[in-house]
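Journal club prep — side note

Before the paper discussion, L.F. wants everyone to see what a predicted structure for a comparable chain looks like in token form. Sequence:
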Amino acid sequence: MTGVNLGLPKAWVVKCKKCSCSIICRAIDPQAEHSQPDQADPPPHHSVIVTCSCCWAAFRYSPAEIFKDSPGPSSSCYDRGKPSLKEEKKPNASLLVAASLIAAIRLNREEIKSSPTVHSKIADSIRLAEMIQARLRG
């Protein structure tokens, strides 16, 4: 996706050393730069440490690695297709509610204590809720 105009204004960017995405190291005010081009901000003259918003890797970049472009993801970014940790660990709320209701119905009038019977009914309830959810998805 490098070179694709995503509608983002130009900024001083660097190419991430890990995933190759273009990341901002210094923002530019495009209106001020357009109205007063002689007072445009120059690129940084010293090394900067930038954290990538895609892969969260932080590296030091020299002034020679800083250029003016629009920020954006790289077509070769290997982290782009992976689900984030937040998505992987997020529990499915509807599955939890369905399994809880099924377990409550199956355990009606039984003593609730840690026993193989209770654990078995809970596991069966979760499997049944997953089957219902899979059937609803098609």
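L.F.'s comment for the group: The beta strands are 11-15, 22-26, 48-51, 58-61, 67-69. Keep this in mind when we get to the figures.
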